[in-house]
Amino acid sequence: MFDQSFPALTPARPVPQPPVFAHTAADTSLAFALTTPDDHPGAGMSGTARPLVLDRFASLAEAMRGAIVFADQLAFDARPQMLAILDRDDRLVLAGAATDGAVAWCHPVISAAEARAVVTEASQFRAQASRAADWKEHGLSQRLQQRADLLEARLVDPLWRAFAARALQVAA
Known about the structure:
Structural class: alpha+beta
Largest sheet: 5 strands, antiparallel
Radius of gyration: 17 Å
Order of helices and strands: EHEHEEEHHH
Number of helices: 5
Low-confidence stretches: 1-15
């Protein structure tokens, strides 16, 4: 039935469940959603992967504080977890990597030319990660995937670029 042979799947690693916030019934009328990627392999392969909404907030500052609360709940030795703040229309406002008690926000691109360069570089990292996985270098593959994720986190929607950059300046 298939013309290609597919490599044997590696054993599934347990997908960490995101920490639960105090109020799980999020108000969908709030402007900003704190999200994390859906790492479930079935959703990714079927094309139905949607970010998991951790909580909703009325302002960007509250969403950034919510991300820090999320980071505080991560285990000390947990791998970095990508977080994204989306607006009501699912446009990327800000993204970063959360680790034990901290969030490293990615500075947004400032122009379309820089966005194209970021996409090109992230694609190269993903291609290298794929080759590393083919060579059974899973640690290297995972690090290259994370670098690509961090680069793509800079691809903030053009509507939010200046605002997000200013929010990061104020937060610093």
